[in-house]
Amino acid sequence: MCGEMIGEAAAKKLLTIPLSNDTVSHRIADMASDIQHQLLERIKSSQFFSLQLDESSDVTNAALLLLCLLPTRTTAQECFRCMDNYFTENGLDWQNCVGVCSDGAASAAAPITRITRCA
Questions:
Q1: pLDDT tens-digit series, residues 35-55
Q2: For residue 109, which of 63, 72, 64, 78 has the smallest C-alpha distance?
Q3: How many Cα atoms occupy the beta-carbon half-sphere of 4 within 13 Å?
Q4: Which residues touch 50 (CB under 8 Å, ≥6 apart)?
Q5: Which residues make beta-bridge pairs with 69?
Q6: Which residues of 78-95 are buried (b: 16+ CB within 10 A; e: fewer)?
Q7: What is the pTM of this model?
């Protein structure tokens, strides 16, 4: 198919690129790490920042929050614990957080009904 779209010569060059599962997996991990590093640097250099939260699940039905895997129930306390650990591990300051927004899902809000301040 590549040969028809980009020509046989270009298709042969593409065949020389290693694309094993390990190679692709490592490249994805490297890109994710680079994006996280860039994002953290931008947040740290900003005077203020805000958070937008959403909760989902993966194919194994494990709860996910932002980029954190939550090992237990998805409660407001567990979400905050995960975020607070991430902030601490990456040198982010809650004092610079000026807002938190979520979709208000009951599973993420119980038993705390709302978050009004970051600090």
A1: 989 988 988 888 887 777 776
A2: 78
A3: 1
A4: 97, 98, 99, 100, 101
A5: 64
A6: bbeebbeeebeeeebeee
A7: 0.56
